[in-house]
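Reopening: Glutathione S-transferase family protein still failing for me.
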Amino acid sequence: MPFFAGHHRLTPTSSLSATPKIRYASWSLASSDHSRSCARAWPVIRPRAKTAARERCMVREEPGNERPVYRLFWDRGSANMAPHAVLREIGCRFELIRVDISKGENRAPAYLALNPNARVPTLVHGGRVIYESAAILMYLCEAHPDAGLMPLPGDPDRGAFLQWLFWMTNTLQEDLQHWWHADNYLDGEACRHEMKIVAERRLERMFSQLDSHLAAGGPYMLGNRFSALDVFLVMLCRWTRAMALPATSYANLNRLIGLVTARPAWAAMMLAEGIDWNGPLAS
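Support: Ran it again with your exact input. Result attached.
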């Protein structure tokens, strides 16, 4: 059975054998304590009641335990996938806190105090709160330069890294949003259907552009150099799985997808989020 946050009873020192530095917490937003919280300190987390199907428990900090360096607020298969995988590539301590969007937890006052956009991911590091997936990637990569996941200032590859990352989050991801969430933009089924058709047509051109880039200078976006850029792109590629021409249809993109998904950090991220390439795993 794959791991889902809150599905297994954890003691303060227990963990998954493959991910000894990671802490999981399940939380409830029903308490009035949450509405009084601010972004600098996550409120007191109260365990939910046990049910026959699931047990939820809180991982408490106790003397002698190493505190997590980062807290990542996430939901299944969302834009948190890339930051989550990068945290695992870095190998630092972090805590995963699920925000179940299907239950409206992203619109609870406590979460909105952290991220007023009601989206995931959100990263908390000490007293700092960072949202937007690409921004979190840059923040993590620059905080851990020894991981080698991003060209630093002065590196000849830095310009290409920034160009492609900004293009992916501003241009490619925008049309993916139009395809998946047309109801957020337009009223009327016919209008939404037309938006999806136009978005998919644009996405095919963009993925063809990426495939040509990889053909000319792959196998990674920066040539022979693996980076967080590849992780971010493969996350976006996964969101095309239900389209007529998914990203796996392009030979060079498919090669990149294979390289990234074969990495232990990506595989561990997918297992922890309870998903595979095609969707949620059965619990």
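The CA atoms of residues 74 and 98 lie 5 Å apart. If you still see a failure, please send the error message rather than a screenshot.
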